[in-house]
Amino acid sequence: MRIPFIAGNWKMFKTKKEAVSFAEEFKKLYKGTDVKAAVCAPFTDLEVLVKAFEDTEIKVGAQNMHFADEGAYTGEISLAMLEETGVDFCIVGHSERRQYFGETDETVNLKVKKLLDSRISPIMCLGETLEERDGGKAFEVVKRQLQKGLEGVAPEKAASLVIAYEPVWAIGTGRTATPQQAGEMCAFIRETLIEILGEEAADMVIIQYGGSVKPENASDIMNMDEIDGALVGGASLNPESFMAIIDF
Ligand code: PGA
């Protein structure tokens, strides 16, 4: 049984003070649900958020990590550094990192493998661009991202893996994939995961949809059989709208 999982992706929003005030508001609204919830925040917010949510079921995640143990990588953050903050998740390969920071399927693969060897679960993002969708290549692109991103991953390590299908054309654009488009791709992702990891391991992987998820469309998306959760950008910045999505 996969438990629905809704994670916020704050991107480069919220200072430490703003994160604390979000947490205070959000805790008042959060009554506990059957849905697992997490907030993936900038590095500087992680410790205060872990502390603020320590008496709740709400989890905290980072948005990136380097694959090396340590070294001369100015500006980067290692797994050991994340582990000491107490986070439970780390986003890997978000399309903004692929587009602006040179993230590739190969670096995504190194990071995912590193995280699957730790107690922090990777949320591996993938999805096609508008050009790729219009060119009829969406399924091919997603399959490649999955195959390369998961190359060398042992099926027994995959239990904590989360996949976020985020069509690039739906991120921050207000243009959501229809529940059918999202469901169709998430079903394809599950089939591909079965090919890569085998049925038993693939069955445990949570598959989220991300891209302009809002309180108004959350239930249509979450009610699709093939979709186990959501990765929410803009609408996770406000405690009321994020709670409304979790309460879909
Ligand atoms: P959005 O972002 O909900 O603002 O479209 C989703 C994401 O980038 O994870």
TrEMBL record:
Active site (UniProt): 94 (electrophile), 166 (proton acceptor)
Q: Pathway involvement?
A: Carbohydrate biosynthesis; gluconeogenesis; Carbohydrate degradation; glycolysis; D-glyceraldehyde 3-phosphate from glycerone phosphate: step 1/1
Compartment list: Cytoplasm
Catalytic function, reaction form: D-glyceraldehyde 3-phosphate = dihydroxyacetone phosphate
Note the subunit structure. Homodimer.
Q: Member of which family?
A: Belongs to the triosephosphate isomerase family.
Q: What is this protein called?
A: Triosephosphate isomerase
Upper lineage is: Bacteria, Bacillati, Bacillota, Clostridia, Eubacteriales
